[in-house]
Amino acid sequence: MTSVEQTYDGAGEDVHDRECYRCDRNVEPARLFRVTVEPPETMAVEYRDSERFCCPDCAAAMNLSEFSEEWIERRRQR
Ligand SMILES: [Zn+2]
């Protein structure tokens, strides 16, 4: 689909775009939650933007389901 253009110097930084990053379970892409982390500007030297994918179960464990409720509400407003 898309090629990963980012290259990492260290090993173990593989991007698992079809696996939950927490439980390593394979999840169909349509059911993956995308979790993006953006550090504040003052921390940008040590941390960089990160994007992870996680399964609905782990999303629920992290209370991310609240976001999905918000999302569903937004869809209902159409
Ligand atoms: Zn998971």
TrEMBL record:
It comes from the Archaea. This is Uncharacterized protein. It comes from Halovivax ruber (strain DSM 18193 / JCM 13892 / XH-70).
